[in-house]
Amino acid sequence: MQSIEILKPHPQGVLAKSQTQWGVVLLHGFTAGPGSVLPWGQALATAGATVYILTLPGHGTTVSDLAQTSAGQWRRHVQQTVDYVLAQGHDRVAVAGLSLGGALALDAAAHRAVDATLLVNPALSFKPVDQLGVALSPFFQRIIPTVGPLAGDIKKAGVVEEAYDRTPVSAVAELAKLFRTVRRRLADISSPVTLYWSTQDHIVPPTTAKLLRRRMEPNLLRIVHMDNSYHVATLDNDAPLIYQDSVNTLLSLSGGDHGGTA
């Protein structure tokens, strides 16, 4: 399939030694690109998983491309990729994502038979201060086609997230549509979900974590708090925690002989 980078598993990784072949679909955030989740994917591949990193429609090219992209295109691209990975013969399949990618991972988990979902600060709602602007975005997008950047919320000094320097207002309106769609189907998720949640996040409000607690089966949701990272935690101070815990989570779901520890 197009717009997918495949990271091959390391044969000596702990997941490979568990003799359970994991395929992981990994999704980046809004206006950004695969670079924001690439180190996470590399850690999973080193541990023995086959990792499929998508470039979401409208991303990795130009702001004008994103302005012409719909929430439906994002959802279809992810679901088609999950279908592709499910057909590759892996023993188990996980979906994982950051921010927008986290929302799309939840959407895929609600519609496809995946075995695990890994989320880093998933976006399912807007901050209260932004909600009025989002509600009016369909009316203002011809007058004000773009606003400032949304990416780069990182605490660690010297780290930069590659992303668009402007945000299409039309794409923000599509983001709102996606949030509504995903929230309606959270109760349909039947496999384990791990949420890596920054206690200080300047992009996504705490209501997202509350939504997951309220609408998902309690025994399926595990929350790992991160106190030393902002929104793009996959590149921040807590990134090693995400990488190691993700591997351990997949290992715990592998069954049988783990062949050692991560």
What does the secondary structure layout of this molecule look like, with pairings?
Blueprint: E1 4-7, H1 14-17, E2 22-27, H2 38-46, E3 50-54, H3 63-67, H4 71-86, E4 92-98, H5 100-111, E5 116-120, H6 128-140, E6 146-147, E7 167-168, H7 169-184, E8 193-198, H8 207-215, E9 221-226, H9 239-252
Parallel strand pairs: 2-3, 2-4, 4-5, 5-8, 8-9
Antiparallel strand pairs: 1-3, 6-7
Helix pairs in contact: 2-9, 4-5, 5-7, 6-7
Domain Serine aminopeptidase S33: 21-236
Active site: 99, 201, 231
InterPro entries: AB_hydrolase_fold (IPR029058), Esterase_lipase (IPR012354), Hydrolase_4 (IPR022742)
Task: Walk me through the structure.
Residues 21-236 form the Serine aminopeptidase S33 domain. InterPro entries: AB_hydrolase_fold, Esterase_lipase, Hydrolase_4. One of its GO terms (molecular function) is carboxylic ester hydrolase activity. The protein has 262 residues and is an alpha/beta fold. The protein has a single domain, classed as Rossmann fold. Helices cover 37% and strands 16% of the residues. The chain has 9 helices and 9 strands. It has helices spanning 14-17, 38-46, 63-67, 71-86, 100-111, 128-140, 169-184, 207-215, 239-252; strands at 4-7, 22-27, 50-54, 92-98, 116-120, 146-147, 167-168, 193-198, 221-226. The strands form 2 sheets. A 7-stranded mixed sheet has the order 1-3-2-4-5-8-9, sandwiched between helices. The chain has a two-stranded antiparallel ribbon with strand order 6-7. Strand 2, helix 2 and strand 3 (50-54) form a beta-alpha-beta unit. The longest helix is centred in the first third of the chain and has 16 residues, at 71-86. The relative contact order is 0.19.
